[in-house]
């Protein structure tokens, strides 16, 4: 379920702005994949990865300017 959650998140990120990407929530991913409650942590990992990547991107943008 984690690879599926990450794959969905990756597809949804393509072509979106940073602000749009931050609107992607684990609940949206879980609903799309129809994840059972015991697998919700997989969609949470995907959301956490999005937030971490954006945080890293913003930090690097600030450092280079």
TrEMBL record:
Entry GO MF terms: iron ion binding; iron-sulfur cluster binding
InterPro entries: NIF_FeS_clus_asmbl_NifU_N
Domain NIF system FeS cluster assembly NifU N-terminal stretches: 4-62
Pfam name, any one: NifU_N
Biological process, per Gene Ontology: iron-sulfur cluster assembly
Family matches, as PANTHER family: IRON-SULFUR CLUSTER ASSEMBLY ENZYME NIFU HOMOLOG
Identification of the protein by name: NIF system FeS cluster assembly NifU N-terminal domain-containing protein
The organism of origin for this protein: Phytophthora sojae (strain P6497) (Soybean stem and root rot agent)
């Amino acid at each position: 379920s984690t690879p599926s959650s990450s794959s969905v998140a990756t597809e949804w990120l393509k072509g979106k702005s940073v602000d749009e990407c931050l609107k992607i929530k684990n609940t949206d991913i879980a609903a799309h994949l129809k994840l059972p409650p015991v697998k919700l942590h997989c969609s949470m990992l995907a959301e956490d990865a999005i937030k971490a990547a954006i945080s890293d991107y913003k930090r690097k943008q600030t450092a280079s300017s």
